Amino acid sequence: MDKDEIKNETVTEETPTEQGKRPSEEQGSTEADSPNVAEEYLNNWKKERADFINYKKGEAKRIEEFVKFANEDLILEIVEVLDDLELAVKELKNMGLEQIVKKFNDLFKKYGVERIDTGNKFDPNLHEAIEIEQGGGKMAEVRAGYTMHGKVVRPARVRLTK
Model confidence over 119-155: pLDDT tens digits? Predict the structure, then answer.
């Protein structure tokens, strides 16, 4: 900007009384209403305090959910290893491997991971059908599924047979 533009520019400044007006003063109240002004400020403060407390509670819940499922990817990778161990136990009938599988299952229980039951009726929320025979009602587990704190992290793959 050059000097001429600066001279022609109008500057508006708020006076100190305009800047610091209270909400009730904007409506034209007088000094006689000062207890109402204090009460109004107190009520606004209480409302803001309640909003802040509710915000803190909401954040605490979000953080809790985040922490609860933070290990989900790690659990899924361990589940893959457990699947291989279970196949080895079926083939080799080794007590040492069975103990390792039991330790993995105990570890999963500690962190809220549970195996999905495939003995019940087919549930598309829990099971993934990979093969369906005509009139098939029984489920044969192909790959184990798991839930973590009630959330399905890996659906059970099943074959529906007669």
Answer: 888 889 999 999 888 877 788 899 999 999 999 999 9
Kind of pairing between the strands at 156-161 and 127-132: parallel
Beta bridge partners of 148: 113, 151
Give the range of the structural domain holding residue 127, as residue numbers without chain letter: 72-161
User: Does 127 lie in the same domain as 49?
Assistant: no
Instruction: Give CA–CA dist 19/6, Å, rounded.
Output: 25
Instruction: Give me the phi and psi of 128, to 5 degrees please.
Output: -120, 115
Task: Determine contact, residues 94/102, Cβ cutoff 8 Å.
Answer: no
CB 161, CB 138: distance < 8 Å: yes
109 & 47 share domain: no
Domain contains 29: no
Cβ atoms within 10 A of the Cβ of 118, count? Answer: 21
Select from 99, 104, 162 the least CA-distant residue to 131: 162
Tally the domains of the chain.
2
Tens digits of per-residue pLDDT, 26-45?
A: 555 555 567 799 999 999 99
